[in-house]
C-alpha cells in the first residue's frame, strides 16, 4: 500500500502493561509509538495489558504520533483475544509479529478490515517472503525484529551488524519496491548513546525511514540522525537551484560542488526539503 511518508524517525516501544510509561509517552518527542502486547508483556499480564491499553487510548493525548499496536501471533493463546480487543479500540495500525507470508496479513486484515497492517520481519521465512508480504494491499510498514532474526540465524551480535546486513537489505528492497515504510530494529544497550548513534547512522545509510527504540533516552539520537542535517538541506536547495538554472538554458545536467546533478538528484533533493518541512511543522 503506497503511503504518504508521515514522520517515522523514532518509533518507541511501550509495554502496554506499564501505565507510567503510557502516560509519559504523551509528552515524549517520538514520531510513532508501538504499544506492545507481545514480548514486553509477561504471560500473566496479557489481559491486564489489554485493559490498560484500552484506557490509555480512550484517554488519548498522543497527538499526531502514529499509534501502532503490536499484538501476539495467531499461533499463541493470546492472539485471538488481542484482535477481539482491538475491534473496539482507537489506534492507527496493527503490528503483527513474525510475519512469514501474505496469508498472515490476510488473516489479520479479514478480522480488522479497515486497519492498516504493519509486519515484523524477523524470521528467515519473513525475509525470504518479504516481497509477497510487502505487496499485500493492507500492508503499510515493515519493522525489523533484529533480536528474533539474530536468534533464528544463530548469528552473533556485532557492532557493524555484518551478519544481518543481507537480511536488512532484502527487506528494504521489498519495502522500496512496493512503497512500504521500513523501520530498523532496536538497539538493546539503551544506555550506550555512542553505539546507538552509530547504528542509527548505519540504518539511515541503508535507507531505513527510522529506528525502533526501547527507552526515551534513545529518542533524541534517532530524531537527529533520521532528520536531514542543515548541510543536507543547504545542498538540496543548491542542487535544485543549479538544476533549474541549467534547465532554463536547455541543459539536462548541472554541477554542484564538483558533482553532477541530474533530474533524479533533484527528486531526492525535493524529498529532503519535504521531510525537513514536515519536521519543522511538527515542531511548531
Ligand atoms: C528497558 C526498560 C525495562 C528500562 O526500564 P526502567 O528501568 O524503568 O527505565 P528508567 O528507570 O530509566 O525509566 C525512566 C523513565 O522513562 C520511562 N520509560 C522507560 N521506558 C519507557 C518506554 N519504553 N516508553 C515510555 N516511557 C518509558 C519510565 O517509566 C520512567 O519514567 P518516570 O517514572 O517518569 O521517570 C524499559 O525502558 C522498557 O520496558 N522498555 C521497553 C522494552 C520493550 O518494549 N521491549 C519489547 C520491544 S523490543 C522487541 O521486541 C524487538 C523485536 O521484536 C525483535 O525481535 O528484535
Ligand atoms: Mg521480535
Automatic annotation (TrEMBL):
Keywords: Magnesium, Metal-binding. SUPFAM superfamilies: Phosphoenolpyruvate/pyruvate domain. One of its GO terms (molecular function) is catalytic activity. It comes from Falsihalocynthiibacter arcticus. This is Malyl-CoA thiolesterase. Mg(2+) binds at residues 122, 148. Substrate binds at residues 70, 122. Transmembrane segments: none annotated. Belongs to the HpcH/HpaI aldolase family.
Amino acid at each position: 500500500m503506497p503511503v504518504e511518508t508521515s514522520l517515522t524517525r523514532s518509533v518507541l516501544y511501550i509495554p502496554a502493561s506499564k501505565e507510567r510509561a503510557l502516560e509519559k509517552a504523551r509528552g515524549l518527542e517520538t514520531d510513532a509509538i508501538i504499544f506492545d502486547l507481545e514480548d514486553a508483556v509477561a504471560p500473566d499480564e496479557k489481559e491486564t495489558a489489554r485493559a490498560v491499553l484500552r484506557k490509555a487510548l480512550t484517554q488519548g493525548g498522543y497527538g499526531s504520533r502514529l499509534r501502532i499496536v503490536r499484538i501476539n501471533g495467531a499461533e499463541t493463546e493470546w492472539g485471538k483475544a488481542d484482535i477481539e480487543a482491538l475491534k473496539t479500540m482507537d489506534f492507527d495500525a496493527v503490528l503483527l509479529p513474525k510475519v512469514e507470508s501474505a496469508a498472515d496479513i490476510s488473516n489479520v486484515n479479514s478480522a480488522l478490515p479497515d486497519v492498516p497492517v504493519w509486519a515484523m520481519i524477523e524470521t528467515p521465512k519473513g525475509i525470504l517472503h518479504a516481497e509477497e508480504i510487502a505487496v499485500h494491499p493492507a500492508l503499510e510498514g515493515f519493522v525489523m525484529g533484529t533480536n528474533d532474526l539474530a536468534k533464528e540465524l544463530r548469528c552473533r551480535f556485532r557492532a557493524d551488524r555484518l551478519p544481518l546486513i543481507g537480511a536488512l537489505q532484502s527487506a528494504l528492497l521489498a519495502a522500496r519496491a512496493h512503497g512500504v515504510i521500513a523501520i530498523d530494529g532496536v538497539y538493546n544497550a539503551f544506555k550506550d548513546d555512542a553505539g546507538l548513534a552509530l547504528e542509527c547512522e548505519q540504518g539511515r545509510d541503508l535507507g531505513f525511514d527510522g529506528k525502533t527504540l526501547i527507552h526515551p533516552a534513545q529518542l533524541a539520537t534517532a530524531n537527529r540522525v533520521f532528520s536531514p542535517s542543515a548541510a543536507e538541506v543547504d545542498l538540496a536547495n543548491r542542487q535544485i537551484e543549479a538544476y533549474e538554472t541549467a534547465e532554463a538554458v536547455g541543459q539536462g545536467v548541472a554541477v554542484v560542488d564538483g558533482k553532477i546533478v541530474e533530474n533524479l538528484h533533484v527528486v531526492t533533493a525535493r524529498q529532503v526539503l519535504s521531510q525537513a518541512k514536515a519536521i519543522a511543522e511538527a515542531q511548531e
